[in-house]
Amino acid sequence: MALRFDASPAHVPLQFVGDELSMPALAAVAVVALGALGALAWWWKRRQHPARRLKRAFGSVDDVSILMHPNPDPDAMASAMAAATIARNADATPVLQYPGSIRHQENRAFRTVLDLELDCIETRGDLHDDVVLVDHNEPRGFQGAEGVDPLAVVDHHPGDGTGRVTDVRPDVGACASLFVDYFEELDATVGADDGLSISPHLATGLVYGIQSDTNHLTKGCSEHEFEASAYLYPAINEDLLDRIANPQVPVEVLQTKAKAIMNHEVEGSYAVCDLDDVPNVDAIPQAADELTHREGVTAVVVFGNHDGTVHVSGRSRDDRVHMGEALQAAVEGIPMAEAGGHARMGGGQLSLDHMNGIGPSDGVSREEFSQRLFTAMAGDY
Fold this sequence. Notes:
The protein is an alpha/beta fold and 381 residues long. It has 3 domains: 3-47; 52-245, inorganic pyrophosphatase (n-terminal core); 251-377, Diaminopimelate Epimerase, Chain A, domain 1, CATH 3.10.310.30. It is 39% helix and 19% strand. The chain has 13 helices and 16 strands. It has a 6-stranded parallel beta sheet, with helices on one face. Helix 9 packs across helix 10 (283-291). It is globular, with a radius of gyration of 27 Å. This is Bifunctional oligoribonuclease/PAP phosphatase NrnA.
């Protein structure tokens, strides 16, 4: 190969003689190649977005169970609605399913107002072979739950559950926010009826799911919740939203709240209330919410018995108290007990028989359990 140097000031670049490329041409080729690599990297990154992976997963099956956690709340139901919308767009046939029951007046209103078809299950056999978990990452609450190998998991709670597609983001305030991110990534239309679209019912459900899990955008929020709400705003049905947000309250819930207000204990800035037996288990977290309004109280735990189980619900407005970790510490060593949650909100369950001493431990009295809760909130664990 022959080379020629032209040293004149107006013509510095090296050139190849004959049919070889000049240096400027080589530079242009390099720029094009780098651009192509950049485009390929962008395409590959977009292809790996959880929304696109989930849609491809739906496209590989015929029938799929969209499984919510036991006793689903608005965030779980809204997330299931969104997952079903993506599934149908991928030509899969979804069914929305859950274990347990829907009792809380807010949850019942959400289901009724949005006219949701939800299927209650009791065993693994009630599910399709392919299962997508929304708003939880480990199946529970039904016989054979340990045998579920999820097709996908979409959740915002801490945990180790995985699926063939896994998107678990504990820093996000609501699972519904993740699905709004999915719709944006998939170029969905808001309020339209063609292609992948977000209907007014779905938009309303997603917004209320976000509101319910963040106490109306005041607790545990990230930027995703505000961005998602703004994105959904054009399609929201305000009448439906108002009907969901303001349901009538059963008298036993009001009585339980009154009992909590009159009978809680306070140590420093922390409050604990033992409700003993409660007729409506959904009144326990509502009582916890009520006590957070007491002046001078920054963290609250309420617990009560229902059908042989002690249900625990905690709330924290105190940066020193990570409620999920505090509840885990309080139930440590008690057989058949589980607890956890986020910094601002947590919950747990204990077997009443094991709390009373059946099995391998001596149990724990209700007074001792209350003191455990105070100690855990104080960080002494």
